[in-house]
From TrEMBL, chains A, B:
It comes from the Bacteria. It holds the Pfam family Aminotran_1_2. This is Pyridoxal phosphate-dependent aminotransferase. Residues 42-364 form the Aminotransferase class I/classII large domain. Coiled coil: none annotated. Pathway: Amino-acid biosynthesis. Keywords: Aminotransferase, Pyridoxal phosphate, Transferase. Belongs to the class-II pyridoxal-phosphate-dependent aminotransferase family. Histidinol-phosphate aminotransferase subfamily.
């Protein structure tokens, strides 16, 4: 076509200033770049043991009903989750994974210039949302591979932060704080500052990791998911727990018809099969012991893990760990690693099946050898 | 617990000012209120004929892979859609239904005070998003039950709007404008104003309804979905078509891992089964003729429809139509109706199966009788 060049859309100032970066590059895209599939997929913090067979069956059944929109209020799932968590249904909002819910929660509180505090090297999708709504991110270093809650709260006071983000257990290090420390720390939160407590990995953590917090406490929003313990990352079902008034505020902005009908049916079946969850917890524990053993066979140590992955300390700096990671990828083993020093001395390996562990046991010494050669 | 009352979170000024209303009350919630299921579900503009059996099978297969996140770049689906639409993959972004994509697109362009133009009585979820980002909505009346594109564009000029929203075919009236009129109207759009062209129902519209617009034209973003023609409303798969630079901007803000893996697999299988779509188009055409016949048997007229639903003119005002709607609901028939006069003289009935039509044929005269008694 000839003619005048048409004018471009007018984006907001905020959008114009945003970088075009994405929080993560997915394994499929990495596979396309390397031109071959991975032999072991141990990098995306997925749970290879998958969901309860009853959840799979429920999703398959529901496929025939896919012509209908899902129930926008998700009453059945909220009731089941409320019973499980010992709260009321109006303490719960369902959303498109924790990623989606973090986006909504950030949107509720962040506008240009609002201060937000997180750990340097913590979950980047939270940072992505804060930047996306114009927030000012303040980062606090890890302390001994743990998120440093007193320092996070102190920083929140200094910068008058509206949100402190804490993942407990933490990703990418896999460490956790005792729930009692978090519950006690709430009283030290600055006024008007809300704790975003990301409990994505809580099903893998030791007893006592989930703090005992009253359901009507307005100072905390907890985020949970069916992606990790329940093995349904591809379904996109998360939920947030909080004070009913805070939870209702999500209804002002959320995509009310955003949930997939099969996913909701699967989540409901999954929460009703606690035996499967216990089996998965056992398999994950065993696999983490094997990752630890493989690391030790290669002279490496690991960071104690309260999640379904293990941060393996490659024994040097981030440059070296990145070389190990690249060599593993070249050999068909997909893992990821922390972004920030000194945590980036580690690579992060998800629990896997026996066949995944066999591949790792074969690949790790070769990758280390290659990395040492530079 | 006793102790001090904890302070509430600090919401943004925008969120604080937002009403707690939701765009729609879903049929499940209406069923809970009435204490019984509907006999016929003809109100949510769903496609009761459902997706291709191949799509159902693809979703069932993919249920076993649900432990993995979906490919965040959706390359396979984008390639298939690009081939289908005669564009390139980088003209396409995939999202959580048109509702989700409208949310992203509004967020790209709307900040407090930005003017936006739509038709008075058009799709409320678009309005919900505009209000949610602080935009100022300007509404133009329908003209003879059609969206009035020249008036929409004239108003956009008057208020310096950044977006004009047009659904073609329209919801809730089911009317459409010829594609050539829309293509020609682009040259009259004010500078810096983008047309949001919602083509949710395009698969049901006559040849020539989709305008011929160059894929690199930055003045339009088109929105399409697998919810209507492809019968997958509960899957939440929509896509937007536009200039590559505009499409890339969605990557700055979208939930990159927001898509359900089964849904993406189902959409891919659906787009590869054009025979099923043709069958559905035939069944919908037949059912719309039957709705028209039922209306005429009751002395009512219908608005000509280019969608999978029919606006039945109840022959009086909105008060009367609301009575008809309530009487139908009481009798187990779920339909909806336009919000605004004079379009609210109609009730909106989706195409259905023979059994749905039998229920409608039984229920409509009784509902009219009841409504006439006041």
């Amino acid at each position: 076509m000839t003619g005048p060049r048409h004018t471009a859309p007018k984006f907001t100032g905020l959008v114009t200033a945003l970088p075009a970066t994405v929080p993560f590059v997915g394994p499929e895209e990495l596979q396309r770049k390397r031109g071959a599939p991975f032999r072991a997929r141990l990098g995306a913090n997925e749970n290879v043991f998958g969901p309860s067979p009853r959840a799979v069956e429920a999703m398959r059944q529901e496929a025939a009903e896919i012509w209908k929109y899902a129930d926008a209020s998700h009453d059945d799932l909220k009731e089941a989750l409320a019973a499980d968590a010992g709260v009321a249904p109006d303490n719960i909002v369902i959303g498109e994974g924790i990623d989606g819910l973090l986006g909504y929660a950030v949107r509720l509180m962040v506008e240009p210039g609002v201060a937000v505090v997180t750990s340097d090297g913590a979950y980047p999708t939270f940072n992505y949302h804060v930047a996306g709504y114009g927030g000012a991110l303040h980062k606090v270093p890890y302390s001994d591979d743990h998120e440093d809650l007193p320092a996070l709260i102190a920083r929140a006071g200094e910068v008058s932060a509206r949100i402190v983000y804490l993942a407990n257990p933490d990703n990418p290090m896999g460490t956790c704080l005792p729930g009692a420390e978090i519950a006690a720390a709430l009283d030290t939160l600055p006024e008007g500052c809300t704790l975003f407590l990301d409990e994505a990995y809580i099903e893998f953590a030791p007893e006592g990791t989930a703090p005992d917090i009253a359901p009507d406490d307005p100072r905390v929003i907890r985020f949970r998911t069916f992606s990790k313990g329940y093995g349904m990352a591809g379904a996109r079902v998360g939920y947030a727990l909080g004070q009913p008034e805070v939870i209702r505020s999500f209804d002002k902005i959320r995509n009310h018809f955003g949930m997939n009908r099969m996913a909701v049916a699967g989540a409901l079946a999954a929460i009703r099969d606690p035996d499967w969850l216990r089996s998965v917890q056992g398999w994950v524990r065993d696999s983490k012991q094997e990752i630890t053993a493989i690391a030790q066979e290669n002279g490496l140590s690991v960071v104690p893990s309260a999640t379904n992955f293990v941060a393996v300390d490659c024994g040097a700096d981030g440059v070296f760990a990145r070389r190990v990671l690249a060599a593993l990828a070249e050999d068909g083993v997909f893992v990821r690693m922390p972004f920030v020093a000194p945590q980036d001395r580690c690579i992060r390996i998800s629990a896997g099946r026996a066949e995944d562990m066999a591949i790792l046991r074969d690949a790790l010494p070769k990758a280390l050898e290659k990395a040492r050669q530079g």
